[in-house]
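ok trying again, last paste got cut off:
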Amino acid sequence: MSFGQQLIDWRRELHQHPELSLQEFETTRRIRHWLENAGLKLLPLNLPTGVVAEVGRGEKVIALRADIDALPIEEKVDVPFASRNAGVMHACGHDIHSSVMLGAALLLKQKESQLAGRVRILFQPAEESFGGAKRLISAGALDNVRAIFGMHNEPGLPVGSFATRGGAFYANVDRFSLTVSGKGAHAARPHEGNDAILLASQLVVALQSIASRNVNTLESVVLSVTRIQGGNTWNVLPEQVELEGTLRTHRQTVRDNVTKRVNDIAAGLAQAFNAQIDVRWFAGPTALVNDDSWATFARDVADGHGYQTQEADLHMGGEDFAVYLQQIPGAFVSIGSHSEYGLHHPAFNPDEALIEQAARYFALLAEKALLQP
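nice, full thing came through this time. structure:
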């Protein structure tokens, strides 16, 4: 079997058996088995799920990272290796990322005696729940690492393409929840109550004005209300309505400004309607900020590896890799996967042709990074 086909077979096995964040026990078992069979050293870290392998010797350490968890999505892709776990799917391509880094690990093992140091390969759990990076750091996965590299497949780019950027790349991710409390009433006698649905509707409209009227149009910001829930029948005005959504930004000053405006608008509307609006914020990963020099280095290696490289646009999605970059320098990159449907879609179907080239790229990237002063 060819090297590329082996990686595709591993990807398909992972794809058939997806597991949610912190439940990746079988995924962990499979990855450990494949690494051990290839003679890779596994670090004895205290990790219920996830694997950290290492190859080479010496004081200098470079890290590569893959993520291994899946999403609570029912797959709608007609392929022989579709998910066998009902309601769970690798709809973000973490199976792709894992197979790429498995391939890089095998290639580095073949050149172990020639490496100018050690390469540590992290197979991280719980990226989707934004907690896995902290777990690996606490377990010691970054100890003595001087730089770290990671990837995400990009369905909007063709296979053979590569993109990254120095500085801010992925966004701050914040979730908000608003509970609107009024007074219930019969739908035929609205004057006897205080309509929480009407107030919630006004609130949604007001929140949408923040990005267009309270933030410089040259800044990157997205505020989306994604869930509204209230009422349980057609002829009663409910007493309470819940709203939920997300805020995405790249700069802390913009994040602080928008958060304040949401709170102020909620307080003002509550007073105007003689009602109550409770606002809660839940912080996700902070902005992913690439080190300028390592991002340039990663792109230069990609140029020499045959990729069509380009400057990446700012990404409004969140990425747990940001936590590593708060500790040590490094770079996160996008590699084209060409899917008609995007990430987190039940019909997401990335092109497996990217896997072997990406595996060889990351092995080369780590090898060259170890030679840097």
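cool. The domain at 172-283 is CATH 3.30.70.360 (Alpha-Beta Plaits). The chain has two domains: 3-169+287-369, 172-283.
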